[in-house]
Amino acid sequence: MTATFRAALLALPLAFAAHAGAAHAAYPDQAIKIVVPFTPGGATDAVARLLANKLSGKLGQPVIVENRPGASTVIGADTVARAQPDGYTLMLSGSTTYTVLPALKPSLPYDPLRSYEHIGIVAMAPVVLLAQTGLAATTVQEAAALARQQSNKGGLMYGTFGPGSAPHLAGEMFAEAAGAKMMPVPYKGSAQLITAMIGGEVALGVDTVSSAAPQARAGKVRALAVTGERRMPQLPDVPTFAEAGMADVSFVGWYGLVAPARTPATVVETLNRAVSDIMQDPQVRKSVADLALDPVYLPAPAFQAQIKQELRTFGDVAKRADITLE
Hints:
Keywords: Receptor, Signal. It holds the Pfam family TctC. InterPro entries: BUG, Bug_dom1. The protein has 326 residues and is of the alpha/beta class. It has two domains: 162 residues, D-Maltodextrin-Binding Protein, domain 2, CATH 3.40.190; 101 residues, 3-Layer(aba) Sandwich (D-Maltodextrin-Binding Protein, domain 2). The chain starts with a helix and ends in a 5-residue tail after the last helix.
C-alpha cells in the first residue's frame, strides 16, 4: 500500500464527517424570505417587515420580505405552498388567504390546512361598522332597526371591498343579526368607500379599524361597533358588537406565518420559539398596536383550529347570502 493511498483512506472518514455536518447544519445558515401576497405599504406588509427585522436578530441571518401580489393573494400563497420545504421560504398573510377564499372559492391551487406548516397567528384585525354622519342612527341597534325598516324597499345599502371581502362577510353577519335584508355595494378600498359615504352614496360601510379610525375621529363618518373581544384603543368609545347584543357579528381578520408543508419539525420548532419570543416583546406589541391591530401569539394548534372554525362559519354565511367567487 503506497503512502499516497494510505493517506487517502485515512482522509475518507474526515470527508464523510464534513459532509454529514454540512447536511445537518444548524438552521438557519442562509437568508430567509417571507413572502407577502399583497403590495407593499399595507398592514400585512408592515407586520411582515416588523417580524423580518426581529427574526433576523433572533436567528442571526438576514430575513427579507418579498411582495408577490395577485389573484386575491392566490399567486403568493401558491408560490409558498410549492416552495422547497426547508424553512427558507415563509409566508405572512391574512385570513383572506387562509379562510375567506377557501370558504368561498370552489377550487384553489393550495389547501389552507394541508399545504402549510402553521407557525403562528401574530395579530388580530377587527373591522368596524360605519354610518354616514347624517344617518338617523347613532348606535348599532338604531342602525339595525333602520335596516329592518328598509328591507322591503330593496335593502339598506352598505359599502364593502367587493364580493367575498372581509367587509362583505362582516356586513352579511350584521344583516343576519339585525334580521334585515341589505344591499352590498363594492368599492376598491377604504379611501373610495369613505368618500362614497361622505357623498351619501351608501348609508353604512364596513372597514378596517386602522383605515377608518382617523376618519371617524375627524367626524367624517360615525363608528358604530367593532368586531372582536374588546374595544380598540383607536376607538375607545365605540362598543364591540358583543357589547351591543350582536355577538354573532364576529368577523375578525388576522395575520399568520406559515412554512411549506413537510418543512422539518426541528425547523418549525425553531421558528415557533423565535416568533413566540418576538410577540412577547413590549416594543413589538406596541408597534403592532400602533397599526390598529391586536398583537397575539397563537401557536399551530390554535392556528389550525381558527382555520377550521372560520371555514365552517364563512361557508355557512356565504351559502345563506349566496356569495360565491369564481
